[in-house]
Amino acid sequence: MFKHKKRWIVSLVLMITLVGLAACGEDEQESKEVSSQGENAETEATAWDALKEKGTFTVATSGTLFPSSFHDGENNELTGYEVEVVKEIGKRLELPIEFVEMGVDGMLTAVKSGQVDAAANGLDITEKRLEDYNFSEPYKYSFGGIVVRASDDSVVESLEDLKGKKSAGGATTIYMQISEKFGAEPVVYDNATNDVFFRDVASGRTDVILNDFYISNTAVNKFKELGVKMSDIYYNPTSAGILLKKEDDSIKNKIDEVLEELHEDGTLTKLSEEFFAGEDVSKPIEGIDDLPVVELDQ
């Protein structure tokens, strides 16, 4: 009798032990699964997720570049083609936009350091910049132009004539690089408005302004009385996009989706014609590839 009872007790102990071990195994497996899910969630977090969590899209722009980014109206409101494109992107992504105004020379650094999330100010998409930054798909196509004194038709008749001329602009722009490549003397401005540039050319303080043709031409027509005009020299086809930090493509992809919508529903064309005196800069220009291209190191 005692032998049977002893066997029964041993069996019961073994059964309890096995059940306990099985429970521990299940708990350990469940713990591993939860840990794995947490690691996967952390791994899959994107720059877009972080931006949405932050809740505001900060975008650098000049606020001084008519008609792309400038202050207008009774309330001195920030507006312009690129400003309104960014506002529309924010609206469709349900993401509030906060503009941070600064000179072009500081924008690239501000994006790289994380001071701002992006920059929109006629920033040309170049192979060199693509090594260090992300760009959205283009929302503006143009080419290089030159602003000269209206009273002097012989300031420049070719890019080679830039040698020795005083060229006004931002220190790190593509256009200042072109000026210096042809021997011009750089005269650097810190986020000045169009009229300041134009008055200095008219007065002889500087000689030329190399910049985007459509921006320059629209501004020259607005400020006709300041004594400047466009030269007949055109060069370097360009495309401009929103400049982003070199992270994953999640923010770029979201912006590109909206830009495609803005192309398809005609919003980009409408905004372009509003700010560029009827010109549609949102589409590639026919025959643009025939223009001369100035090769740059950066």
UniProtKB/TrEMBL annotation:
InterPro entries tied to this protein: SBP_3_CS (IPR018313), Solute-binding_3/MltF_N (IPR001638)
Subcellular location: Cell envelope
Signal peptide (residue range): 1-22
Solute-binding protein family 3/N-terminal domain sequence ranges: 56-279
Gene3D superfamilies the record matches: Periplasmic binding protein-like II
Superkingdom of origin: Bacteria
Keyword annotations of the record: Signal
Recorded family membership: Belongs to the bacterial solute-binding protein 3 family.
Protein's recorded name: Transporter substrate-binding domain-containing protein
Organism expressing this protein natively: Carnobacterium antarcticum
